[in-house]
Each structure stands twice: as C-alpha cells, then as structure tokens.
C-alpha cells in the first residue's frame, strides 16, 4: 500500500465517521427545528461525498454535485438572515465556516483534477487558508468546555456537546487536505 493510499484511507475513514456523526446529530431529539435538521442533512451529504472523493476524484456527476453544494453553501448564510428574530451579523458570521466548507466542496467538484489557472489557484488557496483557520480555531478551543455536563449548551455558540468543535475542526482540516490534493 502506497503512502497516497494510506492518506486516502484515512480521509475516507474521517469523512465516513463525520457523516455518521452528522446523521446522528440530525436524528437526536435535541436537534429541533427545520434549520438544524437541514444543516445536519447537508453535512451528512457532504461528508458522504467527501468519503468517496479521494478514490474517484470528483464524483460521477460533477455538474449536479457542483450545483447541489453551491446551493448548500448559500443555505448557511441565507438561513441566518431569514430567522424570525432581529438580524445580527454575528448569526451570519457564525455560519460562514459551514458555507466555506460547502463552497470548497462545490469548487472541488467543479475543478476535479484539472486546475492550472492562476485564478483557480488563488480561489483554492483562499478557501484552504480560511478553512485551516477555522479548523485550528475549532480544534484549539478552550478545554474547560470538556468539563461541562453533557447536554448543557454553551450560551456563546449554542453548541450542546463540546466534541462538536472536534468534529467541525476535523472536517474542516480534512477538507483543506482534499482541496490541496485536488490542486
């Protein structure tokens, strides 16, 4: 087994586990509301597509995938804006990492392995740097959150389980690796 096959296996395992986690979170009773369920469904679809991407390059239906993930990228900021309560820029900002992940997925399915332009390199680089910053932020969150009782929400982020930061950070880091592998 070559080194690239080992990396492919690790990415497949990461994204398959991420898909199971996203599906699990979407099915839990605490995940109420159409927006939360939609978020988890989109994360599940992305993780499943990413799990097979290391082996087939960009999928069998790149145009349909590109359209789907572009719409998914728009879902996150638009659903923050359409909330019933007063609009706050922080709501949109909180959802930007998820939009960037979906945009990166759309970008990868659009480009496949055939990138060569400078503009394509700039877009890939910007997405990779932003997602890397998001991954590092999620993976290096304050550790006192881990000592909280299960099921208690963090009032600043609305996240119920401290391990959610781990999953978001891991998925963002895996997406960075996939972006760079495609480029």
Quick summary:
It is built from six helices and no strands. By secondary structure, the chain is mostly helical.
What does this structure look like?
This protein is mostly helical. 73% of the residues lie in helices and 0% in strands. It contains 6 helices and no strands. The protein has helices at 3-27, 34-56, 62-81, 89-111, 118-139, 163-182. Helix 2 packs antiparallel against helix 3 and helix 4 packs across helix 5 (118-139). The chain is globular and about 50 Å long. 28% of the residues are buried.
Count of alpha and pi helical runs: 6
Q: Structural class, please?
A: mainly alpha
Q: What percentage of residues falls in helices of 4 or more residues?
A: over 70%
Query: Largest sheet at a glance?
Result: none
The N- to C-terminal Cα distance equals 23 Å
Write the layout of secondary structure elements.
Layout: H1 3-27, H2 34-56, H3 62-81, H4 89-111, H5 118-139, H6 163-182
Notable traits:
183 residues, single chain, mainly alpha, globular
